[in-house]
Amino acid sequence: MKKTLTLAALLAGFGLAHAEPATYVIDPNHTSASFEAKHFGLSTIRGRFDKKEGSVTIDRAAKTGKVQVSIDMNSISTGVTMFDGHLKGEAFFDTAKFPTTTFVGDQVSFDAAGKVTAVTGQLTLKGKTLPVTLTATSFNCIDHPMMKKEVCGGDFETLLPRSQFGVSAYPQASPENVRVLIQIEAIKQ
Fold first, then answer.
1. Domain range for residue 88?
2. From 12, 52, 142, 173, which residue has the greatest number of CB atoms within 10 Å?
């Protein structure tokens, strides 16, 4: 009697047909959260947040996932101390009242090759929670040669309507939509 192995049986034999969700912890040294906005239509102001933490869970077989990120708003850095203080004030981020911004993404989109293309979830900024989609401009997972673990990462971006989050001061100085850029690397646990 001749036996034929199907692809599903072969994958099941290697444990790939029933993949489990994998959890990754964000590597703060290789993760960046930054923003850019025009200043009076003249130049582009850029800033970043130096303290962030979180985790990512991906189930490649089910094509689902979850992202949880927390950003310390007092870690803002534009390279200009006086401007950093201005952005921490009530007119902008009001970090005395709202020291943390969080993003919880519960809808992860994948392409046909299984790469993440977008993450949609809820962003809480300055006490307001609204839906946001972070679009991936790149995404990949590798067996990291130095860490000896799987690491996934990519570049994501979105436009945030600042007034909807209560950051509406000086509309003549900066446009309504601020570009947010996230570069993330996360290590499998």
1. 21-188
2. 52
Residue 115 in domain: yes
> Which pLDDT value is given to residue 168?
85
Whether residue 12 lies inside any domain: the answer is no
- How would you label 45-66 residue by residue, b for 16+ Cβ within 10 Å and e otherwise? bebbbeebebbbbbebeeeebb
pLDDT at 3: 46
The encoded tokens of residue 35 equal: 């923003």
SS3 131: strand
Q: In this structure, are residues 57 and 21 in contact, taking their beta carbons and an 8 Å threshold?
A: yes
CA pair distance 14, 11, nearest whole angstrom = 5
121 occurs within a structural domain? yes
Segment-wise mean pLDDT, segments of 10 residues, the chain, 189 residues: 41 47 95 93 94 95 95 97 95 96 97 93 97 96 92 96 91 90 96
* 45 token code pair: 């102001």
